Amino acid sequence: MVLEARDLPVANGVDQWDMGGQWVSSSQTHVTELIREVGLEVFPQYTEGKKVHHVGGPHAKIKTYITRILSYSPSPCWTSPRFCIDHLTQNISVEDPMSSSNAELYDGMMLHTFMEKHICTTQVKEELALCSHIVFGLEASEVSFLFLLMYSAPAGGTLRLLETTPGSGQEFRVKGGTQQLSEKQDSENMKVTTSAGTVTCKAVIVACPSHLAEPALPAEHQRLTQCLHVGHMTKLIITHPTVRKGFSWEIVARPSEDCPLSVTFDATSPRGNPALVGFITGVQACDWCDRKMEERRNAVISSLVKYLGPEASTYIHDEEKDWAKEEWSGGCPVNVMTPGMLMYYHLSLRKPFGRYTTPLHYYTRKGSKCKSSKCYLLFGLVMTAAALVMAHLLAKPELGF
Questions:
Q1: Which of 57, 89, 319, 368 has its Cα between 20 and 30 A from that of 10?
Q2: 358 DSSP 8-state letter
Q3: Looking at domain 10-172+230-325, which of 3.40.50.1820, 2.160.20.10, 3.90.660.10, 3.30.420.10 is its CATH number?
Q4: Where exactly are the transmembrane stretches of this chain (predicted)?
Q5: For 298-332, what is each residue's pLDDT tens digit?
């Protein structure tokens, strides 16, 4: 049984757009099997047409290209550092990251530190900073370099987390997501209480961000939680009366005072209603979240007009979701380890706790970092939960199916 802590946030009108997690990949076998089992709708992310690439500040040249987005820069300067990082991910053990070569060195530095030491060009530094924004919702100065390698390794490299190509993170779109509301534990059973009622069971898996746990977790979990920064991301859905007119609606931009957006994708519904999805991330999300909604809207529409042309101003409706203000998440898209945390506290991620023989497991948001396969949100949730349930059933047959 899956209990949901909140109503799923969906922008409604004559059609629907998911304001939460929406992408899965054909390489995510567990979640795709579950999707088929329950009959959820999956359809490919649209990518046909021109892409927009704009880094170097608001006055830099805006480039368009037709190759896949988040190959990122058309410049060859980006290729060498990316392959260097992807090569390092091949030597990372996801099960035991501290056993990897140079693990202590990499966990002692931030992604920003690595960039300053090993990357010479400003443009490539901006590209990597954008990667941190889009993948984690955080600045490069907040992310352990080893954590980036560990997070990217199961996917086959950083671009696989970002691209829309077959097997990559944004290959398909899907509706879904689950959360747990609250729990109570006694000597025999677990009692889970939600707004819809109370359920008694033998074991509980809580897919809740560690920093929202109440009552407080044990000391080692608390220490880990204090340094598990949650990303800051605002998701926007903007519906339009017309189709794309030559653009794929994929934009990668360095955020600035004038442009709050980091990345956008096409979000046209399965019914054919045109829409665009965009994300305000990292420090820009912190800055813009306190401004009036009208100011954010005007800045976003102005940026879209700049990149896509005047047709972008004739939108039908805009909807936004600031996940930092969400009661049951407190941020988006994931929790990230700061330098030193993998070295000393990473085992706490998988360690169960509880007063009795049936433990209560806590995991970071949606379970995405507690598994040995791809670190994707929905996939992490499904795979981790399935593995935990099977482990309990094998260890304690009396729990039953």
A1: 368
A2: S
A3: 3.90.660.10
A4: 375-395
A5: 999 999 999 999 999 999 999 999 988 887 778 88
